[in-house]
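Interim report to the steering committee. The following record documents the input for Tripartite ATP-independent transporter solute receptor, DctP family (328 residues).
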Amino acid sequence: MKLFKTTLAGLMMTAAMTTAAAAQECETTLRSSDTHPEGYPTVEAVKAMAEEVRENTDGRICIEVFPSSQLGEEKDTIEQTQFGVIDMVRATLGTFNDIVPETQLFSLPYLFRDQQHMYNVVDGPIGDELAEAIAEHDLITLAYYDAGARSFYNSQKPIESIDDLSGMKFRVMQNDVFVDMMDALGANATPMPYGEVYSAIQTGVIDGAENNYPSYDSSGHSEVAQYFTLDQHLMVPEIVAMSKQAWESLSPEDQEIIRTAAENSETLERELWAEQETASKEAVEAGGAEIIEGIDKQPFIDAMAPVYEKYATTPEAQDLIKRIQETE
């Protein structure tokens, strides 16, 4: 027993010394928050960014990634980053809607034609302008990540046209835009917590829901709703943002190192997301799901006119939508 206690004490001392040594290596440690778990594309991309920053600053700057909502949910961690309580955050652009009004338009249905169109928008002048608007709220945008496209799935029938949605009951997030979208499509919106969707479909309370391939797969919803229609009605970018306070504490040289690493992580995250989507699609198809692709989306898009009129009420908003739609 005495030998065990001695050995344990030695291990604890060694661990403490290792931790202290690691802390001494980093002159600056930046804490980064993510709600997603270990292994998720966004988490792994920020980790890769951290590794590049550490390497290119000779260990002076370290980024410590806290996944799985360890530092709080997205809305809370965005506010903490604004005030400099934490240094970095990865969050969906939709969570910024109450903070940065310009972000609201990016949650409009069928705004982007496809993922490449979304990339072209956020990687160009519009993305730069959005970053400037976000900067006014003490947040420095470092990268735009991909979160996939949300599509409809249900337990009743293949949805091949807008008419097939008529009268069907779909779970949506508790968001006015989503409710209005379903109304415009002729379906019935049923807001409910995500965790209740499986049983609600299984018992017939709702006919289906909407989400991306990885969520459709990991949630098990493909087991009870075997018809997945790839209409891609919503693509909301995610961003990595840094506290303005933390950013301004860095030298211009270190800022450039972080920006470059963030841009590289952006490329990696999009690649990882594409791989995850492919794997999830293959998994649900192997499980018996029917994927309906190549539908005519124009009637769906045309039906959104009243939704756009309700939420794009200013000339500036209307001009931004026009510029997004015209981006090649």
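Residues 21-146+237-277 form a domain with the D-Maltodextrin-Binding Protein; domain 2 fold (CATH 3.40.190.170). The committee is asked to note this result when reviewing the revised timeline.
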